[in-house]
Specification:
Blueprint lengths: L9 E7 L6 E6 L4 E4 L6 E3 L9 H8 L7
Antiparallel strand pairs: 1-2, 2-3, 3-4
The structure holds zinc ion.
Zinc ion binds next to loops.
Length: about 70
């Protein structure tokens, strides 16, 4: 158990996948945030989509923290 449910581990965005144009899901592991397409399975570094950031991704990024000092 992580002991905290105050942050989400993934969020649905409206940003289209570069491969199949379906909306991507943003996911996070402890120190890493990445985009994953649930339709074609493609994973991309978050940096590749930052310029296309939508409200859902922005809100998710604001909630991302993991032992950040
Ligand atoms: Zn895709």
């Amino acid at each position: 158990m992580w002991g905290s449910s105050s942050w989400k581990r993934s969020a649905q965005t409206t940003i289209p996948c570069k491969e199949c144009k379906k909306p991507l899901t943003v996911k996070r592991s402890c120190q890493h945030v990445y985009m994953e397409c649930s339709h074609c399975g493609k994973k991309s570094d978050i940096a590749a989509y930052l310029r296309e950031m939508d409200d859902a991704l922005e809100a998710f990024m604001e909630g991302v923290y993991c032992d950040r000092v």
